[in-house]
Amino acid sequence: MSQRLLGFDYGRKRIGVASGQLVTATASALETVRVFRQGPDWQRISQLVAQWQPQRMVLGISRHADGTDSPLTPQIRKFAAELTQRYGCDVEMIDEYLSSSEARMLLQDGGAATEGEHLDALAAQLILQSWIDQQVRRDD
User: Fold this and answer.
1) DSSP 8-class letter at 23
2) Alpha carbon of 119 to those of 63, 68, 87, 104: distances in Å?
3) Nearest 5°: phi and psi at 59?
4) Could you tell me the domains of the chain?
5) How far apart are CA 11 and CA 81, in angstroms?
6) Is 19 left (phi over 0), alpha (psi -120 to 50) or beta?
7) Backbone torsion region of residue 28, taken as left when φ is above 0, otherwise alpha when ψ lies between -120 and 50, otherwise beta
8) What is the predicted pLDDT for the residue at 16?
């Protein structure tokens, strides 16, 4: 149950990253990784994986309100496959519908800026926390 986790909120320009543990049932925003023209900053992602040594990764998958794939969904699936290939770690996908909107509202309520790196990392935290909460409910 002490499984370490990394969560990701994939975007075209930035990828929010969060860490979490099942033993504490909590997730925390870490940082935002840039996406360059040639793809994600794999060097930075590799550093985070080495630092946190996750047993599992959780990735938000972008869908429309009706459950159909969004234009970003194929890129997210490609990113998930690349995570699995590079790190040999299980990658689970969870619906991220409205995670960025929820993160924006939380930042506004706290008086913080609502764009950029804080937003993406907080969205990753919300995605990972949602997955953790599902696991805790399932195990009860």
Assistant:
1) T
2) 19, 24, 26, 6
3) -125, 130
4) 4-139 (3.30.420.140)
5) 16
6) beta
7) beta
8) 95
Q: Show the tokens assigned to 131.
A: 């997955």
Task: List, as one string, the DSSP characters of 49-105.
Answer: HHHH--SEEEEEE-B-TTSPBPTTHHHHHHHHHHHHHHH--EEEEEE-TTHHHHHHH
Weakly modelled stretches of the chain, pLDDT under 70: 1-2, 97-117, 140
* Structure token digits, residue 2: 């002490």
Any idea which residue has 């699995």 for tokens? 84
Please list the residues that pair with 93 across neighbouring strands: 59
* 4 beta partners: 21
* CA distance linking residue 95 with residue 31, whole number of Å: 21
Task: Check residue 57 and give its pLDDT.
Answer: 98
Nearest to 20 by CA among 137, 139, 121, 114: 121
Query: Residue 73 and residue 100: Cα distance in Å, rounded?
Result: 15
Amino acid at 43: Q
Q: Report the C-alpha gap between 15 and 117 in whole angstroms.
A: 9
Place of tokens 């995605």: 127
Of the candidates 7, 5, 35, 9, the residue with the CA atom closest to the CA atom of residue 104: 9
In the block, which residue shows the tokens 């990735």? 59
